[in-house]
């Protein structure tokens, strides 16, 4: 196979990044945007010895798993959606298979055991008037840049790049985003406020963060700037504040030369510095810097499952590691004796403590720090202060970022001998790695289920219950 060769391929599989996989005379090609079942014409872009990458040029025969037309005209270019052209029920099957595959291959969980313990993936209902779920995200971070003519633009990064594809109307985001972005772009043009330029590390406005409380209809806008103040900021605040639901307008100061979007200092421009939202009947205050699940409809299902898996009766001591603003902790606290939450971001812990207060929850306590430092420290201190007696937990819930848990943390968790460990994961590969360790240390998978928090992307959330072997 050679670069620039045109080939006809039938797509037989889906790769981990959602791309189509097909073979030409035994040679494997990965083709972005090709859907399993398609017959396509593709151009080879990169040819390695045993496999290559090709660009989809023409669909000769569309797959039955392909939608007639993508809802978003940018779907192929934009890096946000990877599988928008795949029918939603096929997306769900792909995600469930991905979780199962990781657990068996990386986690070395016996297939027979999984067949018994794994429950069907929890999908999302379709949106009003559409065949598939859209407009589910309550949070979006739009990069601000300049086009060739010098106009301020915003949109999304093209896949694996930092070049901005202009788009103020993302099909995954809240519908109100567009009005807010147009208002900000017009303001910047009018007052000649420069967009930030990543390569030169010059200019002012880097990103716009928008959060929308689907239940409360409250809106937060936070402009990330490479400077201390926004010229004519009050004028912008006035214009934005008339949008229905506007609750919080802030600046985030980020003067670093970095890929990290948010800066750590938050300054108020107008209104509160947080918005409020509900999951189930628990009320949450959310600050610009705090983590909050992006799909509230599916999150309610996810937390409901985590709670069910925890099997609480009211007598339990529970740890919620990587607790964010205490979302899962407060769900658990209503059914447990005592909950301890651990989280690395100080502002999130401030939110968590406050959230306990506004919900009248008194049996939740929060610690700032790395889970892999706080828990072992607590365990050691406890032993010293209690004459050698070991700290015990009845249930431990973990919800780590993609990199999963450190092995030292898994060891302390096991040392605390919880009856149950509920592992909530946004990356089933690291979940599988950690499950392997926990199985070796005396825990077994009791239940496991994928939840689709992110339709049209290749990401999937998983909840796994492990019980201590008797
Ligand atoms: N359970 C929460 C948050 C989950 S996201 C919810 O559902 O809303 C993961 C959280 O882990 C983030 O809030 C992140 O700030 C935090 N985090 C990342 N690394 C950490 C570490 N080493 N120790 C503790 N928390 C960490």
What low-confidence regions span 5 or more consecutive residues with pLDDT below 50?
none
Helix percent reads: 25-40%
Query: So, CATH architecture of the largest domain?
Result: 3-Layer(aba) Sandwich
Termini separation comes to 56 Å
Largest sheet at a glance?
A: 8 strands, mixed
> In the CATH scheme, what's the topology name of the largest domain?
Rossmann fold
Bound molecules: S-adenosyl-L-homocysteine
Q: Determine and state the CATH class of the largest domain.
A: Alpha Beta
Q: Name the structural class.
A: alpha/beta
Query: How many independent structural domains?
Result: 3
- Strand percent estimate: 25-35%
- Shape designation: globular
Radius of gyration: 24 Å
Strand order of the largest sheet: 6-21-22-20-19-16-17-18
Tally the helices. 10
Oligomer: single chain
Can you count the beta strands?
A: 22
CATH superfamily of the largest domain: Vaccinia Virus protein VP39
What is the mean predicted local confidence, pLDDT?
96
Task: Give an overview of the whole structure.
It is a single chain. A hairpin with a 5-residue loop joins strand 1 and strand 2. The chain has three domains: 6-61, Nucleic acid-binding proteins (OB fold (Dihydrolipoamide Acetyltransferase, E2P)), CATH 2.40.50; 139-279, OB fold (Dihydrolipoamide Acetyltransferase, E2P) (Beta Barrel); 295-468, 3-Layer(aba) Sandwich (Rossmann fold). Helix 1 packs parallel to helix 10 (428-440), helix 5 (296-310) crosses helix 6 (327-333) and helix 8 (371-385) runs parallel beside helix 9 (407-415). It has helices at residues 88-105, 111-117, 177-190, 233-241, 296-310, 327-333, 346-358, 371-385, 407-415, 428-440, and strands at residues 6-14, 20-24, 27-31, 39-47, 51-61, 118-122, 139-146, 152-157, 164-166, 205-212, 219-225, 246-253, 265-271, 275-279, 282-286, 317-321, 338-343, 364-368, 395-398, 420-425, 443-451, 461-468. The mean pLDDT is 96. The strands form four sheets. It has an eight-stranded mixed β-sheet, sandwiched between helices. A seven-stranded mixed β-sheet has the order 9-8-7-10-11-12-13. The longest helix is centred in the first third of the chain and has 18 residues, at 88-105. It is α/β, with parallel strands linked by helices and 470 residues long. Helices cover 26% and strands 31% of the residues. The protein has ten helices and 22 strands. The protein is globular, with a radius of gyration of 24 Å. S-adenosyl-L-homocysteine (SAH) is lined by residues 291-293, 322-324, 327-328, 342-345, 348, 370-372, 399, 401.
């Amino acid at each position: 196979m050679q670069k620039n060769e045109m080939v006809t391929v039938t797509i037989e599989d889906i790769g981990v990044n959602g791309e189509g996989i097909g073979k030409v005379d035994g040679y494997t090609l990965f083709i972005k945007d090709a859907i399993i079942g398609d017959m396509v014409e593709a151009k080879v872009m990169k040819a390695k010895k045993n496999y290559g990458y090709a660009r989809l040029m023409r669909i000769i025969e569309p797959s039955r798993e392909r939608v007639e037309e993508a809802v978003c005209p940018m779907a192929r270019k934009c890096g946000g959606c990877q599988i928008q052209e795949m029918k939603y029920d096929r997306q769900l099957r792909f995600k469930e298979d991905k979780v199962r595959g990781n657990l068996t291959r990386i986690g070395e969980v016996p297939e027979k055991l999984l067949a018994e313990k794994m429950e069907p993936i929890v999908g999302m209902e379709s949106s009003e008037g559409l065949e598939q779920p859209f407009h589910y995200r309550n949070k979006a971070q739009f990069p601000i840049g300049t086009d060739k003519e010098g106009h301020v633009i915003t949109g999304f990064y093209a896949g694996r790049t930092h070049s901005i594809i202009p788009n103020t109307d993302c099909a995954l985001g809240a519908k109100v985003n567009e009005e807010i972005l147009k208002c900000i772009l017009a303001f910047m043009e009018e007052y000649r406020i420069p967009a930030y330029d990543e390569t030169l590390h010059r200019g002012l406005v880097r990103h716009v963060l928008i959060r929308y409380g689907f239940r409360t209809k409250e809106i937060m806008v936070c402009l990330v700037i490479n400077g201390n103040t926004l010229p004519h900021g009050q004028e912008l605040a006035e214009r934005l504040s008339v949008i229905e639901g506007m609750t919080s307008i802030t600046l985030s100061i980020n003067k670093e030369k970095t890929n990290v979007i948010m800066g750590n200092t938050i300054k108020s421009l107008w209104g509160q510095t947080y918005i409020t939202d509900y999951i189930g009947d628990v009320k949450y205050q959310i600050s610009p810097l705090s983590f909050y699940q992006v799909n509230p409809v599916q999150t309610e299902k996810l937390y409901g499952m985590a709670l069910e898996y925890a099997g609480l009766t009211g007598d339990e001591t529970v740890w919620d590691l990587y607790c964010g603003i205490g979302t899962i902790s407060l769900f658990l606290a209503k059914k447990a004796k005592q909950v301890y939450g651990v989280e690395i971001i100080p502002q999130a812990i401030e939110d968590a403590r406050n959230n306990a207060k506004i919900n009248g929850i008194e049996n939740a306590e929060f610690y700032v720090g790395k889970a892999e430092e706080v828990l072992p420290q607590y365990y050691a201190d406890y032993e010293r202060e209690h004459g050698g007696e070991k700290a015990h937990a009845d249930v431990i819930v973990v919800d780590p970022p993609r990199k999963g848990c450190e092995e030292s943390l898994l060891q302390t968790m096991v040392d605390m001998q919880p009856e149950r460990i509920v592992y909530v994961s946004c990356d089933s590969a690291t979940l599988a790695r950690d499950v392997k360790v926990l199985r070796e240390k005396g825990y077994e998978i009791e239940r496991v289920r994928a939840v689709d928090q992110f339709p049209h992307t290749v990401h999937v959330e998983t909840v796994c219950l492990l019980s201590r072997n008797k």
